[in-house]
Specification:
Pfam families: FCD, GntR. The protein is mainly alpha-helical and 247 residues long. The chain has two domains: 72 residues, Winged helix-like DNA-binding domain superfamily/Winged helix DNA-binding domain (Arc Repressor Mutant, subunit A, Orthogonal Bundle); 165 residues, Up-down Bundle (Four Helix Bundle (Hemerythrin (Met), subunit A)), CATH 1.20.120. It is built from eleven helices and three strands; from the N terminus they run αβααββαααααααα. Helix 6 runs antiparallel to helix 9.
């Protein structure tokens, strides 16, 4: 009986989690107040509260207190995935070079795939808009780091493999912090470095638009190698170092 009592909160959490994942519960939808949920699931308050704690820790719900409170649903998104990945990398004290190498291997292949696709012209246009977004905030390190991460994430998404897109999002949470660190006033020649990076992105967009898949892959491989040397020359050497900086 004791084991069954311990398992009950997990079963409730599993049931609610599946409703969210299947789309039967929408972002921001209210599950109701605690008394309603106790009746709905036929469980005790302690079991329900433990189930809600599990889901809240996973980022799938938030519990609002007070007269107008209740349980609010949150759909899984890239931010949740990225936060979890970043925590795992921190816990294992993964070198920043290791994280960057993973992205460096992934993105040139994505560039080649996008350049060879039927939708390459539309993709090039979208990448140019993301470059323009970065240019608008080139003097704001925090905003630039976020805008730069969006460019890299979208490049992989445009390749059409959703699983790789999720992996890229996980890596970008970490690398975006590195870009922000490099962009701080204490780093040398940051303005010129950022602008050179944007010119290189524009070159990639042109190669993609032209459908030159081989050249796009080669160019982006070189770009990632150069940017990697800049990033890895800065103070942060591990993921946990980056997490100490404001972002």
């Amino acid at each position: 009986m004791a084991a069954e009592a311990r398992e009950k909160p997990q079963r409730i959490a599993d049931e609610i989690r599946m409703l969210i994942v299947r789309g039967e519960l929408s972002e921001g939808e209210s599950l109701g107040r605690e008394p309603d949920l106790v009746e709905r699931f036929g469980v005790s308050r302690p079991s329900l509260r433990e189930a809600l704690r599990i889901l809240e820790a996973e980022g799938l719900i938030s519990v609002k207190r007070g007269a107008r409170g209740g349980v609010v649903v949150h759909r899984p998104d890239h931010r949740m995935t990225a936060r979890t990945a970043a925590l795992v990398l921190q816990a294992r004290n993964v070198p920043l070079a290791d994280v960057y190498d993973a992205r460096r291997l992934l993105e040139p292949v994505a560039a080649r795939t996008v350049a060879a696709s039927d939708g390459r012209r539309e993709a090039a246009g979208e990448l140019r808009r993301l470059i323009a977004d970065q240019l608008e905030v080139v003097d704001d390190p925090d905003a630039f780091g976020r805008a730069n991460a969006r460019f890299h994430a979208r490049l992989v998404e445009l390749a059409g493999n959703r699983t790789l897109g999720i992996v890229a999002e996980m890596l970008n949470e970490v690398v975006a912090r590195a870009v922000t660190t490099v962009s701080q006033p204490s780093a040398a020649d940051t303005s010129a470095t950022r602008l050179r990076g944007l010119r290189s992105q524009a070159r990639l967009a042109a190669l993609i638009e032209d459908g030159d898949a081989v050249a796009a892959e080669h160019h982006w491989s070189e770009h990632m190698a150069v940017v990697g040397r800049v990033l890895l020359a800065q103070r942060a050497k591990t993921v946990i170092d980056l997490m100490r900086h404001d972002y």
